[in-house]
Protein backbone atom coordinates (compact mmCIF):
# COMPACT_ATOMS: atom_id res chain seq x y z
CA UNK A 1 0.00 0.00 0.00
CA UNK A 2 1.28 3.35 -1.01
CA UNK A 3 0.96 6.74 0.82
CA UNK A 4 0.41 10.24 -0.68
CA UNK A 5 3.34 12.63 -0.62
CA UNK A 6 1.77 15.58 1.29
CA UNK A 7 -0.62 14.18 3.81
CA UNK A 8 0.39 10.44 3.87
CA UNK A 9 -3.02 9.21 2.73
CA UNK A 10 -3.25 5.49 2.22
CA UNK A 11 -3.52 4.27 -1.40
CA UNK A 12 -4.29 0.54 -1.57
CA UNK A 13 -2.75 -1.24 -4.49
CA UNK A 14 -4.54 -3.84 -6.73
CA UNK A 15 -3.44 -6.70 -4.73
CA UNK A 16 -4.15 -5.06 -1.39
CA UNK A 17 -7.13 -6.06 0.63
CA UNK A 18 -9.44 -3.05 0.92
CA UNK A 19 -9.79 -2.13 4.56
CA UNK A 20 -12.49 0.25 5.62
CA UNK A 21 -10.30 1.66 8.40
CA UNK A 22 -7.85 2.95 5.84
CA UNK A 23 -10.59 4.97 4.27
CA UNK A 24 -11.61 6.26 7.67
CA UNK A 25 -8.04 7.26 8.52
CA UNK A 26 -7.69 9.09 5.23
CA UNK A 27 -11.00 10.86 5.90
CA UNK A 28 -9.83 11.99 9.34
CA UNK A 29 -6.57 13.32 7.92
CA UNK A 30 -8.38 15.21 5.14
CA UNK A 31 -10.97 16.55 7.59
CA UNK A 32 -8.26 17.90 9.86
CA UNK A 33 -6.33 19.44 7.01
CA UNK A 34 -9.41 21.04 5.46
CA UNK A 35 -10.49 22.44 8.81
CA UNK A 36 -7.06 23.86 9.32
CA UNK A 37 -7.12 25.41 5.89
CA UNK A 38 -10.53 26.89 6.57
CA UNK A 39 -9.27 28.47 9.77
CA UNK A 40 -6.29 29.91 7.97
CA UNK A 41 -8.49 31.37 5.25
CA UNK A 42 -10.84 32.91 7.81
CA UNK A 43 -7.97 34.41 9.75
CA UNK A 44 -6.41 35.71 6.57
CA UNK A 45 -9.64 37.32 5.48
CA UNK A 46 -10.00 38.97 8.87
CA UNK A 47 -6.40 40.15 8.84
CA UNK A 48 -6.81 41.54 5.34
CA UNK A 49 -10.02 43.28 6.35
CA UNK A 50 -8.45 44.77 9.47
CA UNK A 51 -5.43 45.76 7.50
CA UNK A 52 -7.59 47.52 4.93
CA UNK A 53 -9.39 49.38 7.73
CA UNK A 54 -6.10 50.57 9.17
CA UNK A 55 -4.79 51.39 5.73
CA UNK A 56 -7.91 53.35 4.82
CA UNK A 57 -7.68 55.29 8.07
CA UNK A 58 -4.01 56.07 7.46
CA UNK A 59 -4.77 57.25 3.93
CA UNK A 60 -7.64 59.35 5.20
CA UNK A 61 -5.30 60.86 7.82
CA UNK A 62 -3.18 62.03 4.95
CA UNK A 63 -6.18 64.07 3.80
CA UNK A 64 -7.23 61.53 1.06
CA UNK A 65 -10.59 59.92 1.71
CA UNK A 66 -10.50 56.11 1.84
CA UNK A 67 -12.69 53.33 3.21
CA UNK A 68 -12.13 49.76 4.35
CA UNK A 69 -14.47 48.55 1.58
CA UNK A 70 -12.14 49.93 -1.05
CA UNK A 71 -10.26 47.31 -3.07
CA UNK A 72 -6.58 47.05 -2.77
CA UNK A 73 -6.36 48.55 -6.21
CA UNK A 74 -8.43 51.53 -5.10
CA UNK A 75 -6.39 51.90 -1.97
CA UNK A 76 -3.24 51.76 -3.99
CA UNK A 77 -4.50 54.62 -6.15
CA UNK A 78 -5.39 56.66 -3.13
CA UNK A 79 -2.01 56.09 -1.58
CA UNK A 80 -0.56 57.62 -4.65
CA UNK A 81 -2.71 60.68 -4.08
CA UNK A 82 -1.14 61.41 -0.64
CA UNK A 83 0.96 64.60 -0.52
CA UNK A 84 3.81 64.06 1.87
CA UNK A 85 4.55 66.95 4.41
CA UNK A 86 7.94 68.60 5.03
CA UNK A 87 9.58 71.05 7.45
CA UNK A 88 10.49 71.04 11.11
CA UNK A 89 7.66 73.08 12.71
CA UNK A 90 6.26 71.82 15.97
CA UNK A 91 2.96 72.49 17.69
CA UNK A 92 4.55 75.25 19.79
CA UNK A 93 5.60 77.00 16.57
CA UNK A 94 2.04 77.19 15.20
CA UNK A 95 -0.86 79.30 16.53
CA UNK A 96 -3.28 77.50 18.75
CA UNK A 97 -6.20 75.86 16.89
CA UNK A 98 -4.28 76.00 13.58
CA UNK A 99 -3.33 72.68 11.85
CA UNK A 100 -0.12 71.83 10.05
CA UNK A 101 2.15 69.01 8.91
CA UNK A 102 5.84 68.65 8.98
CA UNK A 103 8.31 66.06 7.79
CA UNK A 104 6.40 63.43 9.77
CA UNK A 105 3.55 63.80 7.33
CA UNK A 106 1.09 63.82 10.24
CA UNK A 107 -1.39 66.67 10.63
CA UNK A 108 -0.95 68.51 13.93
CA UNK A 109 -2.67 71.38 15.82
CA UNK A 110 -0.61 74.38 16.95
CA UNK A 111 -0.36 75.39 20.62
CA UNK A 112 1.27 78.87 20.31
CA UNK A 113 -0.67 81.54 22.33
CA UNK A 114 -1.92 84.46 20.28
CA UNK A 115 -0.84 87.57 22.28
CA UNK A 116 -2.17 90.06 19.76
CA UNK A 117 -0.88 93.61 20.39
CA UNK A 118 0.96 93.70 23.74
CA UNK A 119 1.92 97.16 25.09
CA UNK A 120 3.83 98.21 28.22
CA UNK A 121 4.96 101.54 29.75
CA UNK A 122 8.24 101.64 31.71
CA UNK A 123 9.83 104.07 34.15
CA UNK A 124 13.49 104.87 33.89
CA UNK A 125 15.52 101.79 34.81
CA UNK A 126 12.49 99.53 34.56
CA UNK A 127 12.26 96.29 32.55
CA UNK A 128 9.49 94.15 31.03
CA UNK A 129 9.54 90.41 30.38
CA UNK A 130 7.88 89.80 26.98
CA UNK A 131 5.55 86.77 27.26
CA UNK A 132 6.03 83.91 24.81
CA UNK A 133 3.55 83.60 22.00
CA UNK A 134 2.42 85.30 18.84
CA UNK A 135 2.62 89.11 18.65
CA UNK A 136 0.87 90.86 15.81
CA UNK A 137 3.36 93.72 15.60
CA UNK A 138 1.02 96.45 16.85
CA UNK A 139 2.22 96.30 20.47
CA UNK A 140 4.50 99.00 21.86
CA UNK A 141 6.91 99.45 24.73
CA UNK A 142 7.09 103.11 25.80
CA UNK A 143 8.96 105.05 28.48
CA UNK A 144 6.87 107.13 30.92
CA UNK A 145 7.50 110.87 30.86
CA UNK A 146 10.21 112.23 33.12
CA UNK A 147 7.69 114.62 34.63
CA UNK A 148 5.52 111.72 35.78
CA UNK A 149 8.54 110.10 37.39
CA UNK A 150 9.85 113.23 39.16
CA UNK A 151 6.72 114.66 40.73
CA UNK A 152 7.87 117.12 43.42
CA UNK A 153 7.26 120.61 44.84
CA UNK A 154 10.79 121.91 45.50
CA UNK A 155 11.88 125.19 43.97
CA UNK A 156 15.36 126.56 43.34
CA UNK A 157 15.45 128.52 46.62
CA UNK A 158 14.80 125.31 48.54
CA UNK A 159 17.73 123.43 47.00
CA UNK A 160 21.26 124.06 48.25
CA UNK A 161 23.31 126.20 45.89
CA UNK A 162 25.50 124.14 43.56
CA UNK A 163 23.15 121.17 43.70
CA UNK A 164 20.61 120.06 41.11
CA UNK A 165 17.37 118.12 41.21
CA UNK A 166 14.68 117.00 38.79
CA UNK A 167 11.27 118.45 39.59
CA UNK A 168 8.30 117.57 37.41
CA UNK A 169 10.61 116.70 34.53
CA UNK A 170 12.68 119.87 34.77
CA UNK A 171 16.26 119.99 35.97
CA UNK A 172 16.57 122.72 38.63
CA UNK A 173 19.78 124.20 39.99
CA UNK A 174 19.58 125.21 43.65
CA UNK A 175 20.01 128.81 44.82
CA UNK A 176 19.69 128.33 48.61
CA UNK A 177 22.64 130.03 50.30
CA UNK A 178 24.93 127.76 52.33
CA UNK A 179 25.87 129.31 55.68
CA UNK A 180 27.04 126.04 57.24
CA UNK A 181 30.78 126.84 57.13
CA UNK A 182 30.48 130.48 58.24
CA UNK A 183 29.33 132.01 61.57
CA UNK A 184 26.18 133.99 60.82
CA UNK A 185 24.63 136.87 62.73
CA UNK A 186 21.02 136.49 63.79
CA UNK A 187 18.86 138.56 61.44
CA UNK A 188 16.24 139.64 63.98
CA UNK A 189 15.02 138.75 67.44
CA UNK A 190 12.06 139.58 69.63
CA UNK A 191 10.35 138.72 72.89
CA UNK A 192 7.05 136.97 72.22
CA UNK A 193 4.84 134.54 74.12
CA UNK A 194 7.15 134.60 77.11
CA UNK A 195 10.24 133.60 75.15
CA UNK A 196 13.04 135.02 73.03
CA UNK A 197 12.45 134.30 69.35
CA UNK A 198 15.24 134.61 66.77
CA UNK A 199 15.17 134.80 62.98
CA UNK A 200 18.13 133.78 60.85
CA UNK A 201 18.86 134.87 57.30
CA UNK A 202 17.23 132.57 54.76
CA UNK A 203 19.45 129.66 53.71
CA UNK A 204 21.03 126.47 54.97
CA UNK A 205 22.52 126.54 58.46
CA UNK A 206 24.42 123.54 59.76
CA UNK A 207 25.55 123.15 63.34
CA UNK A 208 29.29 122.81 63.86
CA UNK A 209 31.33 124.71 66.42
CA UNK A 210 34.57 123.49 64.89
CA UNK A 211 33.70 124.41 61.31
CA UNK A 212 31.98 127.69 62.06
CA UNK A 213 28.47 126.45 61.32
CA UNK A 214 26.57 128.42 63.93
CA UNK A 215 24.56 131.61 64.47
CA UNK A 216 25.24 134.31 67.02
CA UNK A 217 23.57 137.26 68.76
CA UNK A 218 25.65 140.33 69.53
CA UNK A 219 25.66 141.93 72.96
CA UNK A 220 24.11 145.04 71.43
CA UNK A 221 21.21 143.04 69.94
CA UNK A 222 20.45 141.30 73.21
CA UNK A 223 20.74 144.50 75.26
CA UNK A 224 18.38 146.28 72.88
CA UNK A 225 15.91 143.39 73.02
CA UNK A 226 15.62 143.46 76.81
CA UNK A 227 15.89 147.27 76.95
CA UNK A 228 19.03 147.05 79.02
CA UNK A 229 20.71 150.43 79.60
CA UNK A 230 23.48 151.71 81.82
CA UNK A 231 20.84 153.38 84.00
CA UNK A 232 19.33 149.99 84.89
CA UNK A 233 22.46 148.35 86.23
CA UNK A 234 23.75 148.33 89.80
CA UNK A 235 26.88 150.49 90.03
CA UNK A 236 30.07 148.57 89.49
CA UNK A 237 28.47 146.03 87.15
CA UNK A 238 28.92 145.50 83.41
CA UNK A 239 26.45 143.28 81.57
CA UNK A 240 26.41 142.60 77.84
CA UNK A 241 29.12 145.19 77.39
CA UNK A 242 27.11 147.92 79.16
CA UNK A 243 28.57 149.47 82.32
CA UNK A 244 26.30 151.00 84.96
CA UNK A 245 26.16 154.80 85.15
CA UNK A 246 23.75 154.93 88.10
CA UNK A 247 24.64 157.46 90.79
CA UNK A 248 24.88 156.29 94.39
CA UNK A 249 23.90 157.68 97.76
CA UNK A 250 25.33 156.71 101.09
CA UNK A 251 23.90 156.18 104.54
CA UNK A 252 21.71 158.98 105.93
CA UNK A 253 19.87 159.68 109.14
CA UNK A 254 16.52 161.51 108.99
CA UNK A 255 15.13 163.24 112.04
CA UNK A 256 11.36 163.78 111.80
CA UNK A 257 10.32 167.40 112.08
CA UNK A 258 7.30 169.57 111.78
CA UNK A 259 7.48 169.60 107.99
CA UNK A 260 7.87 166.84 105.42
CA UNK A 261 11.36 165.87 104.36
CA UNK A 262 12.47 164.28 101.08
CA UNK A 263 15.47 162.00 100.75
CA UNK A 264 16.73 162.42 97.19
CA UNK A 265 17.14 158.81 96.11
CA UNK A 266 15.35 158.85 92.76
CA UNK A 267 17.52 157.30 90.08
CA UNK A 268 20.29 156.47 92.59
CA UNK A 269 21.58 153.28 94.10
CA UNK A 270 21.87 153.16 97.86
CA UNK A 271 25.14 151.99 99.33
CA UNK A 272 24.03 152.53 102.92
CA UNK A 273 20.94 152.57 105.09
CA UNK A 274 18.54 155.45 105.62
CA UNK A 275 17.96 155.73 109.34
CA UNK A 276 14.88 157.51 110.67
CA UNK A 277 15.53 158.94 114.11
CA UNK A 278 13.14 158.29 116.98
CA UNK A 279 9.81 160.00 116.42
CA UNK A 280 8.77 163.02 118.41
CA UNK A 281 5.46 162.95 120.23
CA UNK A 282 2.48 162.72 117.89
CA UNK A 283 3.78 159.98 115.66
CA UNK A 284 2.66 156.39 115.17
CA UNK A 285 4.81 153.99 117.17
CA UNK A 286 4.90 150.61 115.41
CA UNK A 287 6.57 148.97 118.39
CA UNK A 288 3.68 149.76 120.75
CA UNK A 289 1.05 150.05 117.99
CA UNK A 290 -0.01 153.44 119.33
CA UNK A 291 -0.80 156.68 117.60
CA UNK A 292 0.02 159.88 119.49
CA UNK A 293 -1.55 163.22 118.62
CA UNK A 294 0.52 165.88 120.40
CA UNK A 295 -0.93 169.33 119.89
CA UNK A 296 1.45 171.30 122.09
CA UNK A 297 0.67 173.32 125.14
CA UNK A 298 -1.73 176.15 125.96
CA UNK A 299 -3.51 178.05 123.29
CA UNK A 300 -6.50 180.33 122.99
CA UNK A 301 -9.68 179.73 121.07
CA UNK A 302 -8.34 181.40 117.95
CA UNK A 303 -5.20 179.34 117.49
CA UNK A 304 -6.98 176.19 118.58
CA UNK A 305 -9.64 176.72 115.93
CA UNK A 306 -7.05 177.40 113.27
CA UNK A 307 -5.13 174.32 114.27
CA UNK A 308 -8.06 171.95 114.16
CA UNK A 309 -9.81 173.22 111.08
CA UNK A 310 -6.58 173.05 109.09
CA UNK A 311 -5.85 169.50 110.24
CA UNK A 312 -6.75 166.64 107.96
CA UNK A 313 -7.72 164.63 111.00
CA UNK A 314 -10.25 167.00 112.62
CA UNK A 315 -13.75 168.20 111.83
CA UNK A 316 -14.90 171.51 113.28
CA UNK A 317 -18.03 173.57 112.83
CA UNK A 318 -16.89 176.99 113.99
CA UNK A 319 -18.65 179.30 111.55
CA UNK A 320 -15.94 181.96 111.89
CA UNK A 321 -13.16 179.69 110.62
CA UNK A 322 -12.62 177.32 107.63
CA UNK A 323 -14.56 174.17 108.39
CA UNK A 324 -14.54 170.73 106.81
CA UNK A 325 -17.98 169.87 108.09
CA UNK A 326 -20.83 172.12 109.24
CA UNK A 327 -23.58 170.51 111.24
CA UNK A 328 -26.01 172.85 113.09
CA UNK A 329 -25.95 172.76 116.89
CA UNK A 330 -23.23 170.13 116.79
CA UNK A 331 -19.67 171.30 116.63
CA UNK A 332 -18.40 174.58 118.02
CA UNK A 333 -14.95 175.73 118.83
CA UNK A 334 -14.55 178.70 121.15
CA UNK A 335 -16.78 181.69 120.69
CA UNK A 336 -19.69 182.47 122.96
CA UNK A 337 -21.28 179.02 122.81
CA UNK A 338 -20.09 177.07 125.83
CA UNK A 339 -20.35 173.71 124.03
CA UNK A 340 -17.13 172.62 122.29
CA UNK A 341 -17.20 169.54 120.05
CA UNK A 342 -14.49 168.17 117.78
CA UNK A 343 -14.33 164.84 115.88
CA UNK A 344 -11.09 163.32 114.60
CA UNK A 345 -11.62 162.53 110.88
CA UNK A 346 -9.22 159.61 110.92
CA UNK A 347 -10.99 156.25 111.10
CA UNK A 348 -9.12 154.25 113.72
CA UNK A 349 -8.87 150.45 113.49
CA UNK A 350 -11.22 148.33 115.56
CA UNK A 351 -8.20 146.86 117.38
CA UNK A 352 -7.53 150.27 119.03
CA UNK A 353 -9.80 150.24 122.05
CA UNK A 354 -7.84 152.32 124.58
CA UNK A 355 -7.19 156.05 124.75
CA UNK A 356 -5.07 158.40 126.87
CA UNK A 357 -6.05 162.08 126.82
CA UNK A 358 -4.24 164.99 128.48
CA UNK A 359 -5.90 168.40 128.57
CA UNK A 360 -4.62 171.84 129.71
CA UNK A 361 -7.13 174.39 130.90
CA UNK A 362 -7.22 177.60 132.84
CA UNK A 363 -10.33 176.60 134.74
CA UNK A 364 -10.56 173.63 137.06
CA UNK A 365 -13.33 171.15 137.56
CA UNK A 366 -14.46 171.06 133.94
CA UNK A 367 -15.88 167.82 132.54
CA UNK A 368 -14.73 166.47 129.16
CA UNK A 369 -16.76 163.83 127.30
CA UNK A 370 -14.98 161.28 125.11
CA UNK A 371 -17.29 159.54 122.64
CA UNK A 372 -16.98 156.87 119.90
CA UNK A 373 -18.67 157.48 116.53
CA UNK A 374 -19.63 154.80 113.98
CA UNK A 375 -18.44 156.10 110.55
CA UNK A 376 -21.29 154.28 108.80
CA UNK A 377 -23.96 156.30 110.62
CA UNK A 378 -21.93 159.23 111.98
CA UNK A 379 -23.77 158.64 115.29
CA UNK A 380 -22.23 158.14 118.69
CA UNK A 381 -22.38 154.58 120.01
CA UNK A 382 -21.20 155.52 123.52
CA UNK A 383 -19.15 157.97 125.59
CA UNK A 384 -17.02 158.36 128.72
CA UNK A 385 -16.59 161.45 130.93
CA UNK A 386 -13.57 162.63 132.93
CA UNK A 387 -12.98 165.84 134.87
CA UNK A 388 -10.17 168.33 134.50
CA UNK A 389 -9.20 169.12 138.07
CA UNK A 390 -6.04 171.21 138.01
CA UNK A 391 -5.61 174.28 135.76
CA UNK A 392 -2.50 174.79 133.63
CA UNK A 393 -0.67 171.58 134.54
CA UNK A 394 0.10 168.36 132.75
CA UNK A 395 -1.64 166.19 135.26
CA UNK A 396 -5.08 166.30 133.70
CA UNK A 397 -4.69 163.04 131.80
CA UNK A 398 -6.88 159.94 131.89
CA UNK A 399 -6.76 156.36 130.58
CA UNK A 400 -10.09 155.44 129.02
CA UNK A 401 -11.24 151.94 127.97
CA UNK A 402 -13.47 152.36 124.89
CA UNK A 403 -13.72 148.67 123.94
CA UNK A 404 -17.45 148.42 124.79
CA UNK A 405 -18.25 151.08 122.20
CA UNK A 406 -15.61 150.26 119.59
CA UNK A 407 -16.96 146.71 119.36
CA UNK A 408 -20.27 148.17 118.11
CA UNK A 409 -18.62 149.71 115.03
CA UNK A 410 -17.97 147.89 111.76
CA UNK A 411 -15.54 149.84 109.56
CA UNK A 412 -13.30 151.50 112.10
CA UNK A 413 -14.36 154.32 114.39
CA UNK A 414 -14.05 158.07 114.89
CA UNK A 415 -12.94 159.76 118.12
CA UNK A 416 -14.85 162.80 119.37
CA UNK A 417 -14.77 164.93 122.51
CA UNK A 418 -16.80 167.81 123.95
CA UNK A 419 -16.73 170.06 126.99
CA UNK A 420 -17.86 173.38 128.52
CA UNK A 421 -14.96 175.80 128.32
CA UNK A 422 -16.80 179.12 128.54
CA UNK A 423 -15.07 182.06 130.20
CA UNK A 424 -11.69 180.31 129.86
CA UNK A 425 -8.60 182.47 129.52
CA UNK A 426 -6.54 179.74 127.83
CA UNK A 427 -6.84 176.06 127.27
CA UNK A 428 -5.40 173.36 125.05
CA UNK A 429 -5.58 169.69 124.13
CA UNK A 430 -2.11 168.44 124.77
CA UNK A 431 -1.97 164.73 123.90
CA UNK A 432 -4.23 161.95 122.57
CA UNK A 433 -2.76 158.44 122.50
CA UNK A 434 -4.67 155.48 120.99
CA UNK A 435 -3.76 151.79 121.00
CA UNK A 436 -5.02 148.21 121.30
CA UNK A 437 -4.12 148.10 124.97
CA UNK A 438 -3.66 150.71 127.70
CA UNK A 439 -1.27 153.24 126.10
CA UNK A 440 2.29 153.39 127.26
CA UNK A 441 3.47 156.87 128.25
In words, what does this structure look like?
The chain has helices at residues 20-61, 72-80, 146-149, 219-225, 301-310, 403-406, and strands at residues 2-3, 10-11, 99-100, 108-109, 114-116, 120-122, 134-135, 141-143, 164-167, 170-173, 184-185, 188-192, 195-199, 215-216, 238-239, 242-243, 247-249, 252-254, 268-270, 274-276, 284-285, 290-294, 314-315, 339-344, 354-361, 366-374, 379-388, 397-401, 414-420, 427-435. It has 441 residues and is of the alpha+beta class. Among the domains are: 1-80; 81-109, no CATH class; 284-435, Jelly Rolls, CATH 2.60.120. The strands form 12 sheets. Strands 21-22-30-25-28 form a 5-stranded antiparallel β-sheet, with no helix packed on it. A 5-stranded antiparallel β-sheet has the order 23-24-29-26-27. A hairpin with a 2-residue loop joins strand 9 (164-167) and strand 10 (170-173). Helix 1 runs parallel beside helix 2 (72-80). The protein is rod-shaped.
Please write out the topology.
Blueprint: E1 2-3, E2 10-11, H1 20-61, H2 72-80, E3 99-100, E4 108-109, E5 114-116, E6 120-122, E7 134-135, E8 141-143, H3 146-149, E9 164-167, E10 170-173, E11 184-185, E12 188-192, E13 195-199, E14 215-216, H4 219-225, E15 238-239, E16 242-243, E17 247-249, E18 252-254, E19 268-270, E20 274-276, E21 284-285, E22 290-294, H5 301-310, E23 314-315, E24 339-344, E25 354-361, E26 366-374, E27 379-388, E28 397-401, H6 403-406, E29 414-420, E30 427-435
Parallel strand pairs: 5-7, 6-8, 11-14, 17-19, 18-20
Antiparallel strand pairs: 1-2, 3-4, 9-10, 12-13, 15-16, 21-22, 22-30, 23-24, 24-29, 25-28, 25-30, 26-27, 26-29
Amino acid sequence: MKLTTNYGLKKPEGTDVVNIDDFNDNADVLDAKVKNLEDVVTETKKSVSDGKTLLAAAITAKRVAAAATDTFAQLAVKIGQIILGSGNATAADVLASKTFTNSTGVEQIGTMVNRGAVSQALNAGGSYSVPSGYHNGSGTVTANSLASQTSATAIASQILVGNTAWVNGIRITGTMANYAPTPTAIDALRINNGRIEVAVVAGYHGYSWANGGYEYITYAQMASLISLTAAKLIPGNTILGITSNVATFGAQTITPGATAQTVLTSGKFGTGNITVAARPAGWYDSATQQTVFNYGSYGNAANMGAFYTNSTYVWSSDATRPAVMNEANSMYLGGTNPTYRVIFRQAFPLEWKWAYINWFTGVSNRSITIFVINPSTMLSVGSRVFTVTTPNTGGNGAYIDLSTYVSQCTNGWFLGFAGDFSNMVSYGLRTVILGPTQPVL
